[in-house]
Amino acid sequence: MKMKIFLLIFFLLCSLNLVFKGNQYIEAQENPIQIVASISPLADLVTQVGSERVSVHLLVPNGVSPHTFDPKPSDIKKLEQADLFFIVGLGLEMFAYDMAQAVRNNLELLELGKKIEVLDDPEENDHEHQFGNPHVWVSLRNLSILAESVAEAIIKVDPDNKEIYLKNAQSYKEQCQQLDRWFGEKVKNLKTRHFIAQHSAWSYLARDYNLVQIGVIEEKPGEEPSPKKIKSLIDDLKISENPVIFAEPQLNQKTAQILSQETGVKVIILDPLGSYPNVPFLETMKDNLEKIIEAMQ
């Protein structure tokens, strides 16, 4: 008899727990934290950390460079409804500061790039890069740091679910670390480490794995180089050991193809932004790394 009572109480408690968790899930679905993220990698990172408890609006559409993006009135409206606004900062999204001020004073603008040890950007001398190289997310090691920062920010809004966000951030970090170890082993056997980039999006990746960036095509993203600059790049490619050209789908690849025709150097298309929410950014990064290995081995 006592055993029956015990089992009855046990099953009742389990049922209540399931109901409680179910209600939590429904509440998260009905009242998610509203978040705006400037670029696709950040939108994906926030989604991975926040899971079903966040609703993420991507500001810069897929296929568009944040360097050339011009926000629309509908973007301002999304920002008015947001609890958090994540950007890279470091001068990447110059439009974001005016947008945040236009909405309301209490919207928190979170500049994730401030958490990273920033590289200088000697190749690019425009005012947007006066704070150093802003492409901090194109590094698996930096992404691990950004995951922690995202979790901290969401926890401030929703402290009751702290453990969930910390667990999700840890899972994301472990995925980054696994991919980092895999690529770190692969680069040991590369035939060449030299490359020219369309613009300096790959400097952090080069730092992490001792790749050598010998130049950039666009000193300011979206602006074609001068004939003098093109000649200089051709000369650099000719004297380098088996170099590769990194082009990007968001930018015009015309000059990259000209350089290839003049020197015979291979062009590979690497995507520093990805396609949220269609493809997780770490999958995009793995695809980039596989292309680098294939071109440089």
Topology:
Elements: H1 2-30, E1 33-37, H2 40-50, E2 54-58, H3 73-80, E3 84-87, H4 94-103, E4 108-111, H5 140-157, H6 162-186, E5 194-197, H7 203-209, E6 212-216, H8 227-239, E7 244-247, H9 254-263, E8 267-269, H10 281-296
Parallel strand pairs: 1-2, 1-3, 3-4, 5-6, 5-7, 7-8
Helix pairs in contact: 2-5, 2-6, 3-4, 5-6, 6-10, 8-9
Tell me the structural class: alpha/beta
Question: Which CATH-level-2 architecture of the largest domain?
Answer: 3-Layer(aba) Sandwich
* Domain unit count: 2
Helix content: 40-55%
Let me know the average pLDDT.
89
User: Which sequence of strands runs across the widest sheet?
Assistant: 2-1-3-4
Roughly how many Å apart are the termini? 73 Å
Low-confidence stretches: 18-28
Question: Which CATH class of the largest domain?
Answer: Alpha Beta
Query: Would you give the CATH topology of the largest domain?
Result: Rossmann fold
**What fraction of residues sit in β-strands?**
5-15%
Q: Largest sheet, described in full? A: 4 strands, parallel
Number of strands: 8
The SSE string, one letter per element, is HEHEHEHEHHEHEHEHEH
Question: Whole-number radius of gyration?
Answer: 23 Å
Helices, by number, come to 10
Which word captures the global form?
globular
Task: Give a description of the structure.
With 297 residues, this protein is of the alpha/beta class. The protein folds into 2 domains: 31-182, 3-Layer(aba) Sandwich (Rossmann fold); 187-296, Rossmann fold (3-Layer(aba) Sandwich), CATH 3.40.50. Helices cover 49% and strands 11% of the residues. The protein is built from 10 helices and 8 strands. The chain has helices at residues 2-30, 40-50, 73-80, 94-103, 140-157, 162-186, 203-209, 227-239, 254-263, 281-296, and strands at residues 33-37, 54-58, 84-87, 108-111, 194-197, 212-216, 244-247, 267-269. The strands form 2 sheets. The protein has a 4-stranded parallel beta sheet with strand order 2-1-3-4, sandwiched between helices. Strands 6-5-7-8 form a 4-stranded parallel beta sheet, sandwiched between helices. α9 links the parallel β7 (244-247) and β8. α2 packs across α6 (162-186), α5 runs antiparallel to α6 (162-186) and α6 (162-186) runs parallel beside α10 (281-296). The longest helix is centred in the N-terminal third of the chain and has 29 residues, at 2-30. It is globular, with a radius of gyration of 23 Å. The relative contact order is 0.12. Mean pLDDT is 89; it is low at 18-28.
